[in-house]
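User: My collaborator sent over this chain with a note saying "see what the structure looks like." That's all I know about it. Can you take a look?
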Amino acid sequence: MDTEALARIPGVNPNVPNAARIYDYTLGGTHHFEADRQAAEYLFSLVPSTRKWVPMLRACLRTAAQRLAADGFHHWVDFASGLPTGDHVHAVLPDARVLYSDVNPLTITTAHHLLGDTPRVRYMECDIRQAGAFLRRPDVNAFLGGERRVAFGANGITVFLSAEENRQFFRDLYDWAAPGSKLFTTFETKSPDLSTPKWEQFVGMFRQMGESFQLYSLPEYLDLCGPWARDATGVLPVREFLGLPPEHITDEDREGVGIEFYAVVLEKR
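Assistant: Without extra context I'll predict from the sequence alone. Here is the result:
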């Protein structure tokens, strides 16, 4: 979809930045406007390694989808999905049933236009703080054909939830899922005793937009996951999960605050 077509979608305002379009720009996509690019570039000016970490997170999602498909998972339920562009789960798993979701109405509307009548893919509204109610909806059950042994995706969202919201989210998924289900998620961490003025500005931007933005320690994240168990892949820095060499992440990429992102595969036993 070109930007002219994107601008014609009802409700889309090219002059107001949109989180999903900013994310698309960061990934090197084409579904964004000048306002989105300017907002993204300001974020990059504060935390330049965002340009590196965000594509790595998307690559981890694709890698996880491929690995879980090889494990026999043919139903993928994704939360806070953003725009379903050509590098998302449905492109990696063309034969799977993929259910995307997001809470932003403009993102959902744009997603419907992008997907068209793509078979075996749906995009629905869901507030991740109400994931349990979403999974119990009749239309979700119908799309999944009643299947509850599924693969979940929760990529890059834990930082936007409070500790209790994270705990409830992971518990909701666990309570609904059948044994054998798996969950791919990411943990974004930093050294708790380190900060910089630019990092505080970066975090402040999200909070000014009414978003919670909180990085937890790795032990805290694992506690928040509650009853989920680590599978054989377990918890790996995203660089290792993707099989990249140690030099791929430099000291500069850690932005003076000890940034480390982890790719995590959990299972319900």
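A starting point for your reply to your collaborator: The chain has one domain: 3-267.
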